[in-house]
Design goal:
- The chain is α+β, with helices and mostly antiparallel strands and 86 residues long.
- The chain contains two helices and six strands, in the order ββαββαββ.
- It starts with a strand and ends with a strand.
Length: 86
């Protein structure tokens, strides 16, 4: 999966960081040390880490991901990354 979205809430810039959904690459999620959770009332799961987005972005760069864009959506900050495939 060459695309990855990570996000955090404004005022939580120090973490936690959402790093994936239930369809995310399990190897990448394991590398990040992410835990899979399902919030009561949601019919989907998400992966989270306790680190701030900056540290997550640093880790992802080390395994070949590059930042494409970043935006704010309401009270949420979102980063879109891409990894070239062979």
């Amino acid at each position: 999966m060459p695309y990855l979205l990570i996000s955090t809430q404004i005022r939580l810039e120090n973490g936690p960081t959402n790093v994936g959904d239930e369809y995310s690459d399990p190897d990448v999620m394991n590398y990040l040390g992410a835990r899979k959770t399902t919030v009561l009332g949601n019919n989907f799961s998400e992966y989270h880490v306790d680190e701030p987005p900056r540290l997550v972005l640093d880790k992802l760069e080390k395994i070949g991901f590059r930042l494409l864009t970043m935006t704010g959506v309401g009270q949420t900050l979102v980063w879109c990354l891409h990894k070239e495939t062979d």
